[in-house]
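C-alpha coordinates as discussed.
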Protein backbone atom coordinates (compact mmCIF):
# COMPACT_ATOMS: atom_id res chain seq x y z
CA UNK A 1 0.00 0.00 0.00
CA UNK A 2 1.30 3.47 -0.83
CA UNK A 3 1.89 5.88 2.06
CA UNK A 4 2.23 9.65 2.09
CA UNK A 5 3.86 10.65 5.36
CA UNK A 6 4.70 14.22 6.39
CA UNK A 7 7.14 15.49 8.99
CA UNK A 8 8.18 19.01 9.95
CA UNK A 9 11.93 18.25 10.03
CA UNK A 10 14.54 17.08 7.57
CA UNK A 11 14.79 13.30 8.19
CA UNK A 12 17.91 12.70 10.26
CA UNK A 13 18.88 10.39 13.13
CA UNK A 14 20.07 12.97 15.66
CA UNK A 15 17.25 12.70 18.22
CA UNK A 16 14.68 10.31 19.63
CA UNK A 17 12.00 12.03 17.57
CA UNK A 18 14.01 11.51 14.39
CA UNK A 19 14.76 7.88 15.21
CA UNK A 20 11.08 7.18 15.80
CA UNK A 21 10.37 8.63 12.36
CA UNK A 22 13.04 6.40 10.84
CA UNK A 23 11.56 3.25 12.38
CA UNK A 24 8.05 4.11 11.20
CA UNK A 25 9.18 5.02 7.67
CA UNK A 26 11.36 1.89 7.37
CA UNK A 27 8.43 -0.31 8.41
CA UNK A 28 5.99 1.45 6.07
CA UNK A 29 8.42 1.10 3.15
CA UNK A 30 8.14 -2.67 3.50
CA UNK A 31 4.43 -2.38 2.72
CA UNK A 32 4.85 -0.36 -0.48
CA UNK A 33 5.94 2.97 -1.93
CA UNK A 34 6.38 5.87 0.49
CA UNK A 35 6.24 9.59 -0.35
CA UNK A 36 8.05 11.40 2.47
CA UNK A 37 7.15 15.10 2.64
CA UNK A 38 9.40 17.09 4.97
CA UNK A 39 10.02 20.66 5.96
CA UNK A 40 13.66 21.50 5.24
CA UNK A 41 14.69 22.31 8.79
CA UNK A 42 17.58 21.12 10.98
CA UNK A 43 19.65 19.72 8.09
CA UNK A 44 20.08 20.38 4.38
CA UNK A 45 19.29 16.83 3.28
CA UNK A 46 18.07 13.54 4.74
CA UNK A 47 20.49 11.27 6.56
CA UNK A 48 22.02 8.71 4.21
CA UNK A 49 20.32 5.89 6.16
CA UNK A 50 16.96 7.35 5.20
CA UNK A 51 18.13 7.69 1.59
CA UNK A 52 19.25 4.05 1.54
CA UNK A 53 15.76 2.78 2.44
CA UNK A 54 13.92 1.16 -0.48
CA UNK A 55 10.66 2.50 -1.92
CA UNK A 56 11.17 6.09 -0.65
CA UNK A 57 10.62 9.29 -2.64
CA UNK A 58 11.52 12.52 -0.84
CA UNK A 59 9.63 15.79 -1.25
CA UNK A 60 11.20 18.77 0.51
CA UNK A 61 9.33 21.95 1.44
CA UNK A 62 11.28 25.15 2.03
CA UNK A 63 10.52 27.30 5.03
CA UNK A 64 8.44 30.34 4.10
CA UNK A 65 9.03 33.75 5.58
CA UNK A 66 7.19 34.97 8.64
CA UNK A 67 4.76 37.10 6.63
CA UNK A 68 3.89 34.16 4.34
CA UNK A 69 3.20 31.96 7.37
CA UNK A 70 0.91 34.50 9.06
CA UNK A 71 -2.41 33.54 7.36
CA UNK A 72 -1.79 29.84 8.14
CA UNK A 73 -0.92 30.72 11.73
CA UNK A 74 -4.11 32.76 12.17
CA UNK A 75 -6.28 29.99 10.69
CA UNK A 76 -4.67 27.46 13.00
CA UNK A 77 -5.27 29.65 16.04
CA UNK A 78 -8.92 30.08 15.01
CA UNK A 79 -9.28 26.27 14.99
CA UNK A 80 -8.03 26.10 18.57
CA UNK A 81 -4.40 25.15 17.87
CA UNK A 82 -2.19 26.42 20.73
CA UNK A 83 0.30 29.13 19.80
CA UNK A 84 3.34 26.90 20.39
CA UNK A 85 2.13 24.46 17.70
CA UNK A 86 0.50 26.95 15.33
CA UNK A 87 3.78 28.84 14.92
CA UNK A 88 5.45 25.68 13.58
CA UNK A 89 2.98 25.05 10.75
CA UNK A 90 4.32 25.56 7.24
CA UNK A 91 1.57 26.00 4.61
CA UNK A 92 3.65 24.17 1.99
CA UNK A 93 3.51 20.85 3.85
CA UNK A 94 -0.26 20.24 3.72
CA UNK A 95 -0.30 21.60 0.16
CA UNK A 96 2.38 19.08 -0.89
CA UNK A 97 0.55 16.21 0.83
CA UNK A 98 -2.77 17.05 -0.83
CA UNK A 99 -1.11 17.33 -4.24
CA UNK A 100 0.51 13.91 -3.85
CA UNK A 101 -2.67 12.26 -2.59
CA UNK A 102 -4.75 13.76 -5.41
CA UNK A 103 -2.07 12.76 -7.92
CA UNK A 104 -2.42 9.09 -7.03
CA UNK A 105 -6.04 9.18 -8.15
CA UNK A 106 -8.03 6.11 -7.16
CA UNK A 107 -5.00 4.30 -5.71
CA UNK A 108 -5.36 3.50 -2.01
CA UNK A 109 -3.13 5.86 -0.04
CA UNK A 110 -2.36 5.86 3.66
CA UNK A 111 -1.85 9.42 4.94
CA UNK A 112 0.35 9.81 8.03
CA UNK A 113 0.98 13.03 9.98
CA UNK A 114 4.17 12.63 12.01
CA UNK A 115 4.08 14.62 15.24
CA UNK A 116 1.61 17.16 16.62
CA UNK A 117 2.65 20.14 14.47
CA UNK A 118 2.09 18.32 11.18
CA UNK A 119 -1.06 16.71 12.62
CA UNK A 120 -2.36 20.22 13.29
CA UNK A 121 -1.40 21.28 9.76
CA UNK A 122 -3.26 18.34 8.18
CA UNK A 123 -6.46 18.70 10.22
CA UNK A 124 -8.46 20.03 7.22
CA UNK A 125 -7.31 17.07 5.12
CA UNK A 126 -8.09 14.62 7.94
CA UNK A 127 -11.65 15.98 7.96
CA UNK A 128 -12.04 14.90 4.32
CA UNK A 129 -9.98 11.70 4.12
CA UNK A 130 -9.04 9.00 6.64
CA UNK A 131 -5.59 9.80 8.01
CA UNK A 132 -3.25 8.60 10.76
CA UNK A 133 -1.65 10.72 13.48
CA UNK A 134 1.73 9.30 14.53
CA UNK A 135 2.33 10.75 17.99
CA UNK A 136 5.62 10.97 19.83
CA UNK A 137 4.09 11.12 23.28
CA UNK A 138 0.86 12.10 24.95
CA UNK A 139 1.87 15.76 25.09
CA UNK A 140 -0.48 16.78 27.90
CA UNK A 141 1.27 14.38 30.27
CA UNK A 142 4.49 16.43 30.21
CA UNK A 143 4.63 18.94 33.05
CA UNK A 144 8.07 20.19 31.94
CA UNK A 145 6.60 21.21 28.57
CA UNK A 146 3.89 23.20 30.29
CA UNK A 147 6.53 25.09 32.21
CA UNK A 148 8.54 25.87 29.07
CA UNK A 149 5.68 26.88 26.80
CA UNK A 150 3.31 28.60 29.19
CA UNK A 151 0.41 26.47 27.93
CA UNK A 152 -2.08 25.25 30.48
CA UNK A 153 -2.72 21.55 30.79
CA UNK A 154 -6.34 22.23 29.80
CA UNK A 155 -5.24 23.87 26.52
CA UNK A 156 -2.99 20.94 25.69
CA UNK A 157 -5.74 18.44 26.47
CA UNK A 158 -8.21 20.31 24.23
CA UNK A 159 -5.66 20.27 21.41
CA UNK A 160 -4.85 16.59 21.80
CA UNK A 161 -8.53 15.71 22.05
CA UNK A 162 -9.07 17.51 18.73
CA UNK A 163 -6.33 15.42 17.08
CA UNK A 164 -7.49 12.16 18.62
CA UNK A 165 -11.09 12.71 17.54
CA UNK A 166 -10.34 14.06 14.05
CA UNK A 167 -7.84 11.43 12.88
CA UNK A 168 -9.17 8.05 11.82
CA UNK A 169 -6.29 6.33 13.60
CA UNK A 170 -3.81 7.60 16.20
CA UNK A 171 -0.52 5.76 16.68
CA UNK A 172 0.56 5.82 20.32
CA UNK A 173 4.03 4.92 21.50
CA UNK A 174 3.17 2.96 24.67
CA UNK A 175 0.37 1.25 26.55
CA UNK A 176 0.46 4.09 29.07
CA UNK A 177 -0.13 6.62 26.28
CA UNK A 178 -2.87 4.38 24.84
CA UNK A 179 -4.71 4.46 28.18
CA UNK A 180 -4.20 8.21 28.54
CA UNK A 181 -5.46 8.86 25.01
CA UNK A 182 -8.50 6.62 25.55
CA UNK A 183 -9.37 8.54 28.71
CA UNK A 184 -8.91 11.87 26.93
CA UNK A 185 -10.95 10.94 23.84
CA UNK A 186 -13.17 7.89 24.39
CA UNK A 187 -13.91 6.22 21.08
CA UNK A 188 -10.74 7.45 19.36
CA UNK A 189 -9.17 4.98 16.94
CA UNK A 190 -5.93 4.00 18.65
CA UNK A 191 -3.12 1.70 17.58
CA UNK A 192 0.00 0.81 19.57
CA UNK A 193 2.99 1.74 17.39
CA UNK A 194 6.04 1.46 19.67
CA UNK A 195 9.48 2.94 19.18
CA UNK A 196 11.74 0.51 17.33
CA UNK A 197 15.34 0.19 16.19
CA UNK A 198 16.97 -1.77 13.39
CA UNK A 199 17.76 -4.77 15.57
CA UNK A 200 18.73 -6.98 12.61
CA UNK A 201 21.45 -4.47 11.61
CA UNK A 202 22.72 -4.07 15.18
CA UNK A 203 25.34 -6.65 16.09
CA UNK A 204 25.47 -7.19 19.88
CA UNK A 205 28.60 -5.99 21.64
CA UNK A 206 28.13 -8.53 24.44
CA UNK A 207 28.73 -10.64 26.32
CA UNK A 208 30.50 -8.23 28.61
CA UNK A 209 33.82 -9.18 30.14
CA UNK A 210 34.11 -6.86 33.13
CA UNK A 211 34.16 -3.41 31.51
CA UNK A 212 34.26 -0.75 34.23
CA UNK A 213 32.31 1.99 32.46
CA UNK A 214 28.61 2.76 32.34
CA UNK A 215 26.95 4.79 29.60
CA UNK A 216 24.12 7.29 29.48
CA UNK A 217 23.17 8.20 25.89
CA UNK A 218 20.63 10.98 25.41
CA UNK A 219 19.77 14.27 23.73
CA UNK A 220 20.34 16.81 26.49
CA UNK A 221 18.13 19.32 24.73
CA UNK A 222 15.29 17.31 26.29
CA UNK A 223 14.67 18.41 29.87
CA UNK A 224 13.95 14.95 31.36
CA UNK A 225 17.36 13.81 30.06
CA UNK A 226 19.07 16.78 31.69
CA UNK A 227 17.32 15.84 34.91
CA UNK A 228 18.62 12.29 34.47
CA UNK A 229 22.19 13.56 34.19
CA UNK A 230 21.73 15.63 37.35
CA UNK A 231 20.46 12.56 39.18
CA UNK A 232 23.45 10.49 38.07
CA UNK A 233 26.03 13.14 38.94
CA UNK A 234 24.53 14.29 42.22
CA UNK A 235 23.03 11.13 43.68
CA UNK A 236 23.81 7.86 41.93
CA UNK A 237 27.49 8.12 40.98
CA UNK A 238 28.77 9.17 44.43
CA UNK A 239 27.12 5.99 45.75
CA UNK A 240 28.60 3.93 42.91
CA UNK A 241 32.08 5.27 43.62
CA UNK A 242 31.71 4.46 47.30
CA UNK A 243 31.22 0.81 46.27
CA UNK A 244 33.37 0.72 43.11
CA UNK A 245 35.81 3.64 42.80
CA UNK A 246 37.13 2.56 39.39
CA UNK A 247 33.83 2.91 37.50
CA UNK A 248 33.65 5.61 34.81
CA UNK A 249 30.53 7.35 33.50
CA UNK A 250 30.31 7.95 29.74
CA UNK A 251 27.71 10.58 28.74
CA UNK A 252 27.05 10.80 24.99
CA UNK A 253 24.56 12.77 22.93
CA UNK A 254 23.69 16.27 21.81
CA UNK A 255 24.68 18.79 24.45
CA UNK A 256 26.79 16.40 26.52
CA UNK A 257 29.97 18.24 25.48
CA UNK A 258 28.74 21.18 27.56
CA UNK A 259 28.68 19.19 30.80
CA UNK A 260 31.11 20.46 33.43
CA UNK A 261 32.24 17.14 34.85
CA UNK A 262 32.55 17.27 38.64
CA UNK A 263 34.90 14.27 38.68
CA UNK A 264 37.54 13.02 36.21
CA UNK A 265 35.74 9.70 36.08
CA UNK A 266 32.88 11.45 34.26
CA UNK A 267 33.65 11.39 30.52
CA UNK A 268 31.40 13.64 28.36
CA UNK A 269 31.51 12.38 24.75
CA UNK A 270 29.51 15.04 22.91
CA UNK A 271 27.35 14.09 19.94
CA UNK A 272 28.54 10.76 18.51
CA UNK A 273 27.33 9.85 15.02
CA UNK A 274 28.05 6.13 15.46
CA UNK A 275 27.48 5.09 19.04
CA UNK A 276 28.95 1.62 18.68
CA UNK A 277 32.29 2.69 20.19
CA UNK A 278 30.48 4.08 23.25
CA UNK A 279 28.51 0.88 23.72
CA UNK A 280 31.64 -1.25 23.15
CA UNK A 281 33.35 0.55 26.02
CA UNK A 282 30.43 0.17 28.42
CA UNK A 283 29.58 -2.66 30.75
CA UNK A 284 26.02 -1.39 31.20
CA UNK A 285 23.70 1.41 30.09
CA UNK A 286 21.66 3.74 32.31
CA UNK A 287 18.15 5.08 31.67
CA UNK A 288 17.61 7.13 34.86
CA UNK A 289 14.45 9.03 33.91
CA UNK A 290 12.44 10.65 36.69
CA UNK A 291 9.97 12.48 34.43
CA UNK A 292 8.65 12.26 30.89
CA UNK A 293 6.62 9.68 29.02
CA UNK A 294 6.50 7.40 26.00
CA UNK A 295 9.30 4.84 25.74
CA UNK A 296 12.94 5.95 25.52
CA UNK A 297 14.48 4.86 22.23
CA UNK A 298 17.90 4.66 23.82
CA UNK A 299 16.53 2.01 26.18
CA UNK A 300 15.52 -0.12 23.18
CA UNK A 301 18.80 0.63 21.40
CA UNK A 302 20.84 -0.53 24.42
CA UNK A 303 18.82 -3.76 24.53
CA UNK A 304 19.54 -4.30 20.82
CA UNK A 305 23.27 -3.89 21.44
CA UNK A 306 23.08 -6.70 23.98
CA UNK A 307 23.98 -4.61 27.01
CA UNK A 308 22.48 -4.84 30.48
CA UNK A 309 20.27 -1.84 31.16
CA UNK A 310 19.59 -0.18 34.51
CA UNK A 311 16.39 1.86 34.41
CA UNK A 312 13.84 3.53 36.63
CA UNK A 313 10.27 2.21 36.66
CA UNK A 314 9.18 5.36 34.80
CA UNK A 315 11.68 4.75 31.99
CA UNK A 316 10.45 1.18 31.55
CA UNK A 317 6.70 1.79 31.85
CA UNK A 318 6.24 2.23 28.11
CA UNK A 319 7.83 -1.12 27.25
CA UNK A 320 6.59 -4.70 27.44
CA UNK A 321 9.58 -5.89 29.41
CA UNK A 322 10.16 -7.75 32.66
CA UNK A 323 12.17 -6.18 35.47
CA UNK A 324 14.85 -8.48 36.84
CA UNK A 325 14.74 -10.73 33.78
CA UNK A 326 15.20 -8.35 30.81
CA UNK A 327 16.73 -5.34 32.59
CA UNK A 328 17.72 -4.15 36.06
CA UNK A 329 15.13 -1.88 37.65
CA UNK A 330 15.78 0.51 40.50
CA UNK A 331 13.97 3.55 41.88
CA UNK A 332 15.40 7.01 41.30
CA UNK A 333 17.19 6.93 44.64
CA UNK A 334 20.95 7.23 44.79
CA UNK A 335 21.81 4.16 46.85
CA UNK A 336 19.30 1.83 45.21
CA UNK A 337 20.22 2.89 41.68
CA UNK A 338 23.93 2.58 42.46
CA UNK A 339 23.43 -0.93 43.79
CA UNK A 340 21.69 -1.91 40.54
CA UNK A 341 24.57 -0.44 38.52
CA UNK A 342 27.14 -2.48 40.43
CA UNK A 343 25.11 -5.63 39.90
CA UNK A 344 24.69 -4.94 36.17
CA UNK A 345 28.47 -4.53 35.79
CA UNK A 346 29.03 -8.04 37.15
CA UNK A 347 29.23 -10.21 34.00
CA UNK A 348 27.74 -13.23 35.75
CA UNK A 349 24.64 -11.20 36.60
CA UNK A 350 24.55 -8.78 33.68
CA UNK A 351 25.14 -11.06 30.68
CA UNK A 352 22.04 -13.28 31.13
CA UNK A 353 19.86 -10.19 31.56
CA UNK A 354 21.44 -8.60 28.48
CA UNK A 355 20.74 -11.70 26.37
CA UNK A 356 17.10 -11.68 27.46
CA UNK A 357 16.82 -7.95 26.69
CA UNK A 358 18.22 -8.45 23.20
CA UNK A 359 15.61 -11.15 22.57
CA UNK A 360 12.82 -8.79 23.68
CA UNK A 361 14.13 -6.07 21.35
CA UNK A 362 14.17 -8.51 18.44
CA UNK A 363 10.69 -9.83 19.15
CA UNK A 364 8.85 -6.60 19.99
CA UNK A 365 10.93 -3.52 19.12
CA UNK A 366 12.49 -4.30 15.74
CA UNK A 367 11.54 -2.86 12.37
CA UNK A 368 10.23 -6.32 11.45
CA UNK A 369 7.95 -6.27 14.49
CA UNK A 370 6.67 -2.82 13.52
CA UNK A 371 6.14 -3.97 9.94
CA UNK A 372 3.78 -6.65 11.28
CA UNK A 373 2.09 -4.08 13.55
CA UNK A 374 1.36 -1.75 10.63
CA UNK A 375 -0.04 -4.44 8.38
CA UNK A 376 -3.57 -3.46 7.42
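Sequence:
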Amino acid sequence: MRTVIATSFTPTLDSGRARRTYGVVAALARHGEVDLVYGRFGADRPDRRFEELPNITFHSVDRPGQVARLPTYLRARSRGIPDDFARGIWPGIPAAVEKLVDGHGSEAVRIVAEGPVVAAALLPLAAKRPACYCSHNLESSFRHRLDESGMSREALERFERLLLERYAECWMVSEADMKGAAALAPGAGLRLVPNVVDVAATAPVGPRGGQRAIAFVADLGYEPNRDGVAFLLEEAMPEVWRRAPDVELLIAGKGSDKIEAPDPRVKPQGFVDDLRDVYEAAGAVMVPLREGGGSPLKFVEALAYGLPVVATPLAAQGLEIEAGADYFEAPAEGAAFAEAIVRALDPELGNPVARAGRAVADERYSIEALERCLDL
